[in-house]
Design brief:
- It is a single chain.
- The chain is about 70% helix and about 5% strand.
- By secondary structure, the protein is mostly helical.
- It has a two-stranded antiparallel ribbon.
- A hairpin with a 6-residue loop joins strand 3 and strand 4.
- The protein is elongated, with a radius of gyration of 27 Å.
- The termini are far apart.
């Protein structure tokens, strides 16, 4: 069992006495949703789903290190590991949502693009933006959790992290604008069993992004008053506004899995080579059609006889 050291102990990594039981609960919870996502990824043969597996696995690993840190409060490495993993793990879930939406645009939008952005670029652009915020947040989290750092250095790291999640939220809002445009296109399509499933997945995406937003707002509030804020020393806030929303997000994506809505290999985004091959084939078909039109006889009305004759164009 873990034990609490006096706050006056300079080797103590914790500024309060944490409870170990909730950490065990979330290890099991995130571990189960990660396992289910692994099974679903193989079952539906949607290997891009291993992005969300990474998110759930990092959450699981974060709480394992939290348990170890509670049991060994003077081990700064274990404390830093859980601190960093918990802060950046949700970015995997965010990236997964972006990837799913790109595939939805490809499968269910008649033009396979939204506001001029092609489906294969839709997810790519937002994933790249997510990676950029990921790097900023990781740098901030590492800077804030180093050994023997001053309060000013830790605060600077926290501020960098807060900039990262603020930019992440801005990208989420931009993504929502595009998702609503896709939603409007879906609403114009005839109602069917398939469209109902697609709409259910879209609402899950909305729900996941809302949960991520709640978590971002909490993290911004957490250190808004600097390191003297009372929020970090009350772990219930973290469990309610960070860990629980992220678990629900992972579970929602289990319940309405993208692989069930977009099954089969034909629903996958085509590779660059395949897109190029299709473009060449379409150009060939277009040229063949034009040549056929030129060689076909065209009707011509003879005003003298009142008959319709056919005239070869070439």
């Amino acid at each position: 069992m873990g034990y609490c050291l006096p706050q006056s102990d300079k080797d103590n990594s914790w500024s309060f006495c944490p409870s170990i039981a909730p950490a065990y609960i979330f290890v099991v919870s995130f571990g189960l949703t990660a396992l289910v996502h692994i099974i679903q990824g193989f079952w539906y043969r949607k290997f891009y789903s291993f992005v969300v597996v990474m998110g759930a696995a990092w959450q699981t690993g974060g709480f394992i290190f939290r348990i170890l840190s509670i049991m060994h409060p003077t081990n700064s490495g274990e404390y830093q590991a859980w601190f960093i993993l918990i802060l950046v793990a949700p970015l995997w879930i965010n990236a997964y949502v972006y990837m799913v939406m790109g595939r939805m645009v490809y499968n269910f939008h008649p033009k396979k693009k939204i506001y001029g952005i092609k489906s294969h670029r839709f997810g790519l652009y937002f994933v790249l933006l997510d990676i950029a915020t990921f790097l900023v947040q990781v740098y901030g989290a590492i800077s804030a959790s180093g050994d023997n750092i001053s309060n000013s250095t830790a605060l600077r790291g926290i501020h960098i992290y807060m900039i990262g999640i603020g930019v992440q939220q801005a990208f989420i809002l931009l993504f929502m604008i595009l998702a609503i445009g896709f939603h409007r296109e879906l609403a114009r399509q005839p109602k069917s069993k398939r469209s109902t499933r697609v709409m259910a997945l879209l609402y899950v995406i909305y729900g996941v992004l809302l949960l991520i937003t709640i978590r971002i707002i909490f993290r911004l509030i957490e250190y808004s008053n600097g390191l003297t804020s009372t929020v970090p020393s009350h772990e219930a806030y973290m469990y309610i506004f960070d860990s629980t929303p992220m678990f629900i997000a992972c579970a929602l994506l289990n319940i309405v899995h993208p692989g069930a809505v977009m099954p089969g290999k034909e629903s996958d985004l085509p590779s660059r080579k395949e897109r190029k091959r299709r473009a060449q084939r379409d150009n060939t078909d277009r040229v063949d059609g034009d040549l056929q039109y030129l060689h076909n006889p065209l009707p011509r009305f003879d005003s003298a006889t009142g008959d319709t004759r056919f005239q070869q164009t070439v």
